[in-house]
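Lecture 7 notes: from sequence to structure.
We start with the chain below.
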Amino acid sequence: MKNRRIIPLFAMVYAASSAAQTCFPESYSTTPTSRFTDNGNGTVSDTQTGLMWKRCTEGMTWSVTTCIGDELTFTWQDALKQAVTVNETSYAGYTDWRVPNIKELLSIVDRRCAGPAINTTVFPAASSSYLWTSSPAKTTSYNSWIVSFDAGTLDANQPRSLKYAIRLVRTAQ
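Predicted structure tokens for the same chain:
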């Protein structure tokens, strides 16, 4: 049983379905819309975790009710640098944005959905792509953790030289 990966049943059902987001009813949501406060500036605050999230992945721009533009991808090192770049210019008046750790990024996975596995009311125009975490893998210094927002799964076997998207977070005060 060593290194055995458990794939949620919903993910297996999704794999056989269409590419559009598929969700169970809102009553099954692990990230209900009511858990988030819209700050009116392209960010939301999570009342459960105390985190503030950018509603758009990097490369996309908040525009009144949705994210527009193209999602950018970064190597792991460049993802960390992107957070520094965002902080140099300030986003929504804050200069402490960062790449989330595993626990933080998994906290916005909506386990009732797939393709993408995220609440698209809170995070509109979200893709099913992989997103970097700031958490390095413990098995090798060359890999780091990512979260697949296709089915909400976690993977540590990703070389830091690969390019994935990022969604920045900060600890709300």
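Points to note: Confidence is low (pLDDT under 50) at residues 1-18. Residues 4 and 125 are 33 Å apart (CA to CA).
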